[in-house]
Amino acid sequence: MASTHSSLLLSSLLLLLLLSFSSGQTRPKALVSPVRKDSATLQYVTTFSQRTPLVPINLVVDLGGRHLWVDCDTNYISSTYRPAPCRSALCSLADSDGCGDCFSPPRPGCNNNTCGVSPDNPFISTSTSGELATDVLSLSSTDGTTPSSPSTAPKFLFSCAPSFLLRGLAANSTGIAGLAKTRVAPPTQLAATFSFKRTFALCLPSTSSSPGVLFFGDVPYKLLPNVDASQSLTYTKLLTNPVSTAGSYKQGEPSYEYFIGVTSINVSNNVVPINKTLLSIDENGVGGTKISTAVPYTVLETTIYKAVLNAFRAALSGIKTVTPVSPFEVCYNARDLGSTRVGPAVPAIDLVLESESVYWRIFGANSMVAVSEEKLCLAVVDGGDRPRTSVVIGGYQLEDNLLKFDLATSRLGFSGTLLFRRTTCANFNFTSSA
Ligand SMILES: *[C@@H]1O[C@H](CO)[C@@H](O)[C@H](O)[C@H]1NC(C)=O
Ligand SMILES: *[C@@H]1O[C@H](CO)[C@@H](O)[C@H](O)[C@H]1NC(C)=O
Ligand SMILES: *[C@@H]1O[C@H](CO)[C@@H](O)[C@H](O)[C@H]1NC(C)=O
Ligand SMILES: *[C@@H]1O[C@H](CO)[C@@H](O)[C@H](O)[C@H]1NC(C)=O
Ligand SMILES: *[C@@H]1O[C@H](CO)[C@@H](O)[C@H](O)[C@H]1NC(C)=O
């Protein structure tokens, strides 16, 4: 009964969001925004436009984040900001934690009789409470080739957060773009607003000098020179972890992060001996593999970590290791490793998925990080012996790979390194055709 009621409520709300899309605009096929790598924090930062008048806001990308939040305490000026009234449909859409008043003069982030949610900063493992609100959000439309005219969602649902929640984030960012599979995170909310498919794609840059790209919607994802990165993808199932992995969550709530089913790991075409139990998600939500932009390098449970390092060293046994640089433990002199189009010539690491023919192959460009001019280290870190999630695939391993998240069919399409196709994530043509 309750669930029928709430799903009715939700469909009417989605309809409302839909109708609120102003009829003066042409309906975009997809939206696009740049994603920069911040060299100080190794975070990935995207830029949206929000408020009236519109201002660009820099948001750190958190694939596992529940929603979009911004600091409303500092310089939030907008004539179209509206707090979400207590017990409104917006509150249920956002799975609000409750209602409250604010005992200071009213301003964005501080209003009476509004509902709140829990904005989370995974970089400092901190959540707090924040007012739920709507405001104008604008992104460039795209056909997948170049950005064109801006498309505007007049009532985009997000949350406010106090300024202290920005701690640990890249300079000049004012919040986090949570891209998880919730109804309110931008992928689903923008799809509902503009009636396009619940699909988005992330292509992280490997350099801070030019931006990678984030697409919402399903179009050919074009990278110069004329590579359609939506083609030749390998698909794997997105899994649901039955227990939330979030900083704060409700009893019984499943995780809204992106888990995939790694079944074994190969190094140089040999199976790495690891405890397979750690690769599956148990009834308490422990184990398994997720994809995260909240960690710069892949994090492996200790026994998996040691086994992968041993296999890697063994496969490169002809080459001398050098004094490692923390947090890494296996390093080589760059001169001792050959170089290839796909990075330093090192053994490939395969994440084998649902069958032997479905695997994510990681080459040197994504496995070896330069810690100095002459030293390269295997870019994985030790996650300790009882981590919640056994394998967390981090940012460095995702760079110059296109990831297409199809939320309607719960599938992840991945390109493998784009370097083989003579392009990179920094090759989207951001020169507007509008
Ligand atoms: C909320 O209501 C209280 C009590 O009526 C009042 O003191 C306070 O100023 C109000 N706060 C805002 C933000 O309107
Ligand atoms: C932050 O913004 C200021 C002023 O807009 C700019 O000068 C500075 O380069 C920016 N810093 C970064 C890290 O983007
Ligand atoms: C993994 O290694 C095993 C044993 O060598 C091999 O049979 C299998 O094909 C490999 N799988 C992949 C995806 O490399
Ligand atoms: C494999 O891992 C599971 C889960 O941590 C643990 O219960 C089990 O004892 C491990 N098996 C071996 C052989 O170490
Ligand atoms: C990028 O897009 C602009 C606008 O459509 C176009 O004029 C330009 O030729 C494109 N650049 C390349 C390298 O294709």
Automatic annotation (TrEMBL):
GO molecular function terms listed in the Swiss-Prot or TrEMBL record: aspartic-type endopeptidase activity
Compartment(s): Secreted, Extracellular space
GO aspect biological process, one term: proteolysis
Domain of life of the native organism: Eukaryota
Signal peptide residue numbers: 1-24
GO cellular component, one term: extracellular region
A Pfam family it matches: TAXi_N
Domain Peptidase A1: 44-415
The entry's keywords: Secreted, Signal
Family, per entry: Belongs to the peptidase A1 family.
Name of the protein this chain belongs to: Peptidase A1 domain-containing protein
Organism: Dioscorea zingiberensis
Source lineage: Eukaryota, Viridiplantae, Streptophyta, Embryophyta, Tracheophyta
